[in-house]
Amino acid sequence: MAAENEEQTPAPEEHGGQGALLRRAHGALVAQGSPLGAADLVRVVFGVSEEILPGSPWHGLLERLLGGSDLFQALPDGRWSLREWNADGLALDAVEFAVLDIETTGLTPSRNRIIEVGALIIQGDDTRDVFESLINPGRTIPDFIARFTGISHEMVARAPKAENVLPALLAFLGRRPVVGHNIGFDLGFLGYEAQRLGGGLFFPTDGLDTITMARRFVPGVRRVKLDVLATRLGIMAHERHRALGDARTTADILRLLLARAKAEGCRTLGDLRAALAEVDGNGPPPRGATAQPRPTGSMYLNPAWRRDFPDKPGVYLMRDASGKVIYVGKAKCLRDRLASYYHHPLGYTRKMDGLLQSVANIETRVLGSELEALLVESRLIKELQPRYNVQLRNYEHYPFIKIDVKSDFPRVFATREVRADGGRYFGPFNSRRAVEATIEVIQKLFPVRTCTRALPPAAKPSDPCLRYHMGRCAAPCKGGASKVAYRAVIDDVIDFLAHSRGDMMDALRNKMWEAAARDDFERAAVLRDVIRHADSVLLGQKLITSAIEANNLLLIYPSAEPAHAEMYLVRHGRLIEQRCVAGDPAAIRADFEEMMRRAIWLGPPPTKVGKAEVDQINIIARWVHRHSREHGRAFFTLPTDLDDTEAVERLRAAVIARTLAIAAGEADVSPAQPEDDAPEET
Asked: Which residue(s) pair with 100 in the sheet?
C-alpha cells in the first residue's frame, strides 16, 4: 500500500521544478524565523491541503528535496532549520561577515540589470578576501547611470555576463552573514537575477543592514545615505557609487557599529539580530515568531501550464472560470514573464488582489517582436476591458491642456472637451495625473497666473497671491501688468508644450549641478524633481505632438521567426503596416516598394489626433526613443519627398543590406529594456 501511495506522489518537477521548491522552503523558514515541522513545510512547498500523517510519502519527498541541499538542516525533533542560523551563537569577533554592494541600471529588478558587484570578507579588523567584477547587462547603460557611477557601456561591453559572475559571487559569500547598506535592495536584485537565470542559485533573502544598525547604535541619526553616515562617523568614503568602493565604506562603518553594539552588551550574532529587530520593525523576525510565509502565485496557478509557455515575444490573456478575460499582458519572452507569476507574492497591491486566485486558464499568442506585443496588448485591453488592467481602458476620457490665447492673461488648465473656440489645445494625455504633473512643471518654469479671479479693468484690483511675491506670476490681478510681456511668456509655454524647449531643460540641469556643487542639496533635489517631471511627463506629450512630423520611419527588427526580420512602416506616428520579411534580397525589395506605395498614398498627416490613436502613437514614440541607439535594430527616416527617386533608391539599398544582416543574425543585437510590467504596475 505504501508503494502504491509513493507512485501517486508527484515528483518535484511537477510542482514547478526543484529550484522553485527549495525557494519556497527557504522563504517559509525565513518568514517563520524559527524551525518548521515537516508537515508545515509539505503544505507550503508542495501545496498539499489534506492532513499530513506520520509516515506519509510526502515526508520522504521533503527529506530527499531538503536533504540534498546545503541550505537546510534536519533537527533531531523532526523539524527543519536553516544552516545559516548556526552562526547566531558565535561571538561577534569570531564571525566572518560578507559585505556586499552592487551597481545597477535602475531601481527595479524586473526592468533593470546589475552592472557591477563588489564584496569583502571581513573578520574584526581584518579583510580576508575581496571580490569585484563588472557585469555585461546586455543592454545600453542609461546616460544618467553612466554619469552617476562612472560605468560606461564601453566598460561593460567585454565584461562577463551575470550567469558567469553570480555563481562565483555566491561561492565567495558562502554561508556567511551578508551585510550591506540598504541590503534588501542588493539581495532583491541578486535574487531576481538568480531566479531569472535558473541553475539552482540561491542568494540569501535577508541580511544585516547598516541603515538599521545606524538607527540602533548612533543616537540622533536621521539621514542614512552612505556618504552622509560615513561623514557622521568620521569615516573616509572610498570610491563612491562603485561597488567595491561602497562595499569598503560599508565595511568600515560596520566595524565601528559592531564596536558600539558590543559596548551595549551584544556579544553574539544572535544578540545583534535581536537588538536590530527592535528598530522600527526592521531586521529579521525574532526567533520563535509566529509569522506565516507569504503565499505566492504558485498556490493557485497550475504548474503544468509552464511546460507550454513559449520562449518567444507575445501577449497573454488570463481568463477566469467563466472564460472571461480578466487580464492582458505582454512580454518579450512569454515563458519568463509568466513563470514570474508563480513566485509573485500575493496581497502586495490592493488593485491586483484576487487576480491570480481567479485565473483558470492562460492563453498565449506569439507575435513577431516586443513592439508588436506592446501594440497588440493596447488594442486588446481597449477591446476586452479586462477588470485587472487599470490603464489603457478609459481612453475615451483622455484629457487635454488648454490655453485660452484670446484672453489677455490666459491660464494653463486641464479640460476633457475640445471646442472650436480659438484656444490652443495640447493632448490628449493618457491620464489626468499626467496633465496635472505637466501643468505643475509649467507653473514652476513659467510665471503664469493660476487664479480664476476677474481681472482689471472688468473688476477692481486685488492683492496678489504668494506666487507674485515668489516671482512666479506677473499679478495681472493687481493691475498694471504688461500684456506684451505676458504674451511672450505664453508663447514660451506653447513652444515648450509643442517642442519641449531643450535650452530651458539644459538651463535647469545646469542650475541643479551648480546647486549640488555648492552643497545646496535641497535646492538640487527640487530641481531634480522638476527635471524628472519634465523628462517623464512632457516626453510623452512632446513625442505625441512631434510624432506626426518626426516619426515617419521604416523600422527593421529581429523576428521571432528564424531567418526573418520584422519590417514596420510608421507614418505620421502611426503603425501603418508590419511584415515578416524573409532574408532574401528580392523579397525585401518587393516589401519595401509596397510599403513606399502605401506611404505615398497616405499623403499629409491628419490635422487632429484622435483619442483612440493616443496610445499607439505614444507606445511607438517611446519605443523609438528608448531603442533608437541599440544595436541590432535599424531606424530609417523616410525622405521628406517620397517622389525623390534618388533618395528612395539610397534608402532601398540601405534597408536591403540591413535587413539581410538582421535576418541572418549577423547584427549585434543587444537585448532591449524589458517592456514587461509587474502586475501591480500595469
From this structure: 119
